[in-house]
Design goal:
Distance between the termini: 21 Å
Mean pLDDT: 95
Radius of gyration: 20 Å
Helix content: 40-55%
Structural class: alpha/beta
Strand order of the largest sheet: 3-4-2-1-5-12-11-6-7-10-8-9
Order of helices and strands: EHEHEHEHEHHEEHHEHEHEHEEH
Strand content: 15-25%
Length: 336
């Protein structure tokens, strides 16, 4: 039996619990087997409150969860410290949240789980409890060890985008944009497209930073001094890379057909197009890790938590993509 996917609890006062339950209810809709690392009592209370028939089974490990997946959602217990008030995150529960992530990574790295899928976290609540990482990506880098460099990809069926700079004020993003950052992002993206997405000769499109990609220096020299040289360096290494392209002409349907992933210079340049194209089913994928990690491309939505109205489509897409990536890695190892 194929190893199941480890799904972390995320912020207990957010929508993670209900989209987890909804994903299991749609288990016959192409959702690969998964188990939750969570507090089974809090999930049981949530299911009862919402009137959903979701049998839950506390399990000792992923193997037991895989066997029961058709009849019950396996839950590897991770007890929370304080009772949950939906919509009101509590720093006292932060240790359970981060502990679930650590446990999921350990299970994947020992081969007992196929991939890590993380429910959204409430970062300011974790910060209040002493969490020192900007977010999931940096935490996962540390757990991976060996100076691993990870980057974020957002993916849907029609587009994949990689922001070279991520959660920074725009002023800071401009200062952090370097040739080396673009080259590193390009290498990691291309290698991941080969190993995890089954694209033997990936094509990358690189966005310019300025309007009209700088218009030969008339609107900025970053394309001449930073972006262009990075593209040339990647081409010299054998990667198929085009650009720099004006960002306002990169994301219509005909343009998207010409590349497999777009490298974008800053957060909104990447996220606006993908969320416009497929807001409900975008997936956050961490590239460059020695294990697979995906996540829904949305936050904790504490304002609607516990009401039963949260859309599980992004989580389901994250589970499906994680399963596909795991299958490809397994196939590559068997051939090797």
């Amino acid at each position: 039996m194929t190893a199941p996917i480890a799904l972390t609890m995320g912020e207990p006062a957010g929508i993670g619990g209900e989209i987890t339950l909804k994903a299991w209810l749609r288990r016959h809709d192409g959702v690969p087997p998964f188990f939750a690392i969570d507090d089974p009592d809090r999930l049981a209370r949530l299911a009862a409150t919402l009137g959903w028939d979701v049998p839950l089974r506390a399990v000792a490990g992923p193997e037991e969860a895989a066997h029961c997946f058709g009849e019950a959602l396996g839950v590897l217990p991770r007890r929370i410290a304080h009772p949950v008030l939906m919509g009101r995150p509590d720093p006292a529960n932060a240790r359970a949240v981060t502990g679930a992530i650590v446990a999921a990574v350990d299970l994947v790295r020992t081969g007992r789980a196929a991939a890590v899928v993380t429910n959204p976290i409430q970062k300011e609540t974790l910060y209040a409890a002493g969490f020192r990482h900007p977010g999931h990506t940096e935490f996962l880098e540390e757990l991976a060890g060996n100076d691993v460099k990870a980057i974020m990809m957002l993916a849907c069926s029609e587009l994949r985008v990689v922001p070279v700079t991520v959660h920074l004020a725009l002023r800071d993003a401009l200062q952090r944009l370097t040739r080396e950052a673009i080259i590193t992002a390009g290498r990691i993206t291309a290698r991941s497209l080969i190993s995890d997405f089954g694209i033997p000769r990936p094509r990358l499109a690189v966005a310019g930073l300025n309007p009209h990609a700088g218009e030969n220096g008339a609107m900025g020299r970053e394309e001449i001094e930073i972006v262009g040289p990075a593209i040339e360096a990647l081409r010299a290494e054998g990667y198929a890379v085009g650009g720099p392209y004006p960002a306002d002409t990169m994301f219509h349907a005909a343009a998207r057909a010409r590349y497999d992933a777009a490298l974008c210079m800053y957060h909104d340049q990447a996220l606006i197009p993908i969320k416009t194209i497929d807001f409900d089913r975008g997936v956050n994928v961490t590239l460059g890790l020695p294990f697979i990690r995906t996540s829904p491309d949305h936050g904790t939505a504490c304002d609607i938590a516990g009401k039963g109205i949260a859309n599980p489509d992004s989580l389901i897409a994250a589970l499906r993509l994680a399963g596909e990536m795991a299958s490809r890695r397994t196939a590559r190892r068997s051939v090797a």
